[in-house]
Design goal:
This protein is an alpha/beta fold. It has 3 domains: about 60 residues; about 260 residues, Aldolase class I (TIM Barrel, Alpha-Beta Barrel), CATH 3.20.20.70; about 80 residues. The chain has 20 helices and 8 strands. Strands 1-8-7-6-5-4-3-2 form an 8-stranded parallel sheet. Helix 3 crosses helix 4, helix 5 crosses helix 10 and helix 16 runs antiparallel to helix 19. Bound molecules: flavin mononucleotide. The site of flavin mononucleotide (FMN) has 25 residues, from strand 2 and helix 14. Keywords: Flavoprotein, FMN, NADP, Oxidoreductase, RNA-binding, tRNA processing, tRNA-binding.
Length: about 450
């Protein structure tokens, strides 16, 4: 049927891309195994999507690890394609991306394999005001894959929620935006900070886009024009530089180029990406030094644009200081995964409104009911996927390790999800279970 065909075609495209990288990483014999397992997957279940299959096969999982948390479109574009795209953009009319309807004072960073809708459901019991982001979704996945599965979210409770797209082709990104508009995300963000493209050795994706400000501007313009249909803001998440292009002047040029095509909202991960030294994505989040002063300079140099600072923020106090220093917002990633409960005071402290004030007993009660329904609705949803968001809920408290171990062990035994949570809660004392933020 017409539904199956594009999915299968999309997978062939991606198999080709993965095959290319595999030559480098594993050698030819493994490539044929890789192709074999993918072909097998296609035969056994035509609707299986790449995100699932990556989880299922060990070799693909290894490939995924080597690609880091970001993966997807690894196509290589030719210079002529680029210049024709640049040419055609010069003739088109200019649209300015509207400001974000709700201020992004605080946001939870997009994180592959973490910020899925289950994690966002949990987060909404911790903060009602923080902006939430999807995991990065490639425009190619939206075009060739199961777009509804990738795009649907818990409307309306997840708002404000932004979709992050990854891609390197103006038409594909426009198509991706078009598919996303009916879902009414509060913003659509282009990933210009993901370092994983180093694997392909040819930069045209994520942080590599920062090497080509004019071309990235074409991508943004294409997205902005499409998103104008519903007045959806288009924002950009980038690093402060890439490889040798790491002085402030370069960053300013990059922001200027995107500003010229109408981008008004930027999220700046305040360290550069190093693409030419074979760092893993994880190393690329740790080794390049943080240079917050670059973000502060942008705030001064582009007073009508808004800048969200990201990278290394560990506490509400730190976030508050950055806000007082003039940035429009602060985005936090790893610390939210590591200790989600801590951020239950963010609505009061940073937005000046009441916290949700749910205890963790209440949160887990709600989450348990939610997980049962989700698993009934979606037979493909695994227990560990649906329970991953709650695993760090008691970090630092007595019994936290037993809590996590209980979840892991009972998940492996395929015990019912509500029974697992009931057993896990028993590891935690009443005082911690019933604690509330002010
Ligand atoms: C597991 C993981 C996955 C990530 N996935 C994405 C992603 O899909 N898109 C993106 O723009 N950044 C991604 N990042 C980077 C974060 O959004 C953020 O920029 C980075 O972690 C720095 O912020 P932090 O120091 O508060 O963690 C990821 C980071 C982690 C740890």
């Amino acid at each position: 049927g017409s539904h199956v065909q594009p999915t299968v075609m999309g997978e062939h495209t991606r198999i080709h891309g993965l095959g290319l990288i595999s030559v480098v990483i594993f050698g030819l014999s493994q490539v044929s195994y890789l192709r074999g397992s993918l072909t097998h997957a296609n035969l056994s279940d035509k609707s299986i999507d790449m995100r699932r299959s990556v989880r299922c096969w060990p070799l693909l999982a290894r490939l995924r690890t080597s690609l880091g948390p970001h993966r997807g479109n690894l196509g290589i574009r030719s210079a002529s394609l680029r210049s024709s795209a640049l040419e055609s953009s010069k003739t088109s009319g200019k649209v300015i991306s509207p400001p974000l309807a709700l201020g992004e004072r605080f946001s939870v960073a997009p994180m592959m394999d973490y910020t899925d809708r289950h994690f966002r459901f949990l987060l909404r019991m911790i903060t009602k005001k923080a902006w939430l982001y999807t995991e990065m979704i490639t425009s190619e996945a939206l075009i060739h894959g199961d777009a509804d599965r990738l795009l649907r979210y818990h409307d309306p409770i997840e708002h404000p929620v932004a979709l992050q797209l990854g891609g390197s082709d103006p038409d594909s990104l426009a198509k991706g935006v078009k598919k996303a508009l009916p879902y009414a995300y509060d913003a659509i963000n282009l990933n210009c900070g993901c370092p994983s493209d180093k694997v392909s050795g040819r930069g045209s994706f994520g942080a590599a886009l920062m090497k080509e400000p004019d071309y990235t501007a074409v991508l943004c313009e294409s997205m902005i024009q499409q998103a104008a249909a519903t007045d959806t803001p288009v924002s950009v998440k980038c690093r402060i530089g890439v490889d040798e292009n790491d002085d402030y002047h370069y960053l300013k040029q990059f922001v200027t180029a995107l500003g010229d095509v109408g981008v008004r909202h930027f999220i700046i991960h305040a360290r550069k990406a190093i693409l030419n030294m074979n760092l893993s994505p994880k190393q690329n989040r740790e080794i390049p030094p943080l240079k917050y002063q670059y973000v502060h300079r942008l705030v001064v140099d582009f007073p009508s644009y808004s800048f969200v600072l990201n990278g290394g923020v560990k506490s509400l106090e730190e976030a508050d200081e950055f806000l007082k220093a003039g940035v429009a917002g602060v985005m936090v990633g790893r610390e939210i995964i590591n200790r989600p409960w801590y951020w239950g005071d963010v609505d009061r402290r940073l937005f000046g409104v009441e916290n949700p004030r749910l205890s963790r007993r209440e949160i887990l009660g709600n989450y348990s009911a939610y997980a049962v329904v989700e698993m009934e609705r979606d037979p493909r949803l695994g227990i560990s996927t649906v329970l991953k968001p709650v695993q760090h809920l008691f970090v630092g408290e007595r019994g936290a390790r037993a809590y996590r171990r209980t979840i892991a062990e009972l998940s492996a035994k395929k015990v019912a999800v509500d029974e697992i949570l009931k057993a896990a809660i028993n590891c935690i004392g009443d005082q911690d279970l019933d604690q509330r933020w002010p």
